[in-house]
Amino acid sequence: MKKQQGFTLIELMIVVAIIGVLAAIAVPQYQKYVSKSEASAALASITGLRTNIETHIIDKGTFPTTALVAPPSSALGVVSYVNVTSAAGTVQFLFNSTGVSPDTVGKKISLVRTGTGSWSCTTDVDASIKPKGC
Q: 9-123, which class in CATH?
């Protein structure tokens, strides 16, 4: 008599169920990490502008406009200057409505400069994906 080798249907179904449970846990965590990295990349994009803005304020005495200190372009969103008054202003990163993770769609990360020269970070992204230093 020839001995049969292989897996039973039950064994295969158990393996598929285990893989399904692991995927159900892993996919949301992966999406959270992607959202977190997008938020960190946005903050890094606008943080790099602080030196150029400070130099412009020292030279000209006013917060720059887009024409004077060009913000970087990003596939994730748009960088702009808002609420500009004399030496105070805000550098804002607005996430796109498409091409980014669902947690960051339409959200903003902003660096706000007061007239005295202090910077602060504000954002409307969820606290779980908020970048460190903001």
A: alpha beta
Q: H or E stretch including 16?
A: helix 9-47
Query: In this structure, which amino acid lies at residue 9?
Result: L
- Give the span between the Cα atoms of 10 and 36, in whole angstroms: 40
Q: How is the chain split among helix, strand and coil, in percent rounded to 5? A: 40, 20, 40
Q: What is the three-class DSSP state of 85? A: strand
Q: What is the pLDDT of residues 19-67, one digit of tens each?
A: 999 999 999 999 999 999 999 999 999 998 899 899 988 898 888 888 8
Tokens 């064994």 sit on residue: 11
Dump pLDDT digits (tens) for 113-134: 998 889 999 999 998 899 988 8
Cβ-count burial of 96 within 10 angstroms (0-12 exposed, 13-18 middle, 19+ buried)? middle
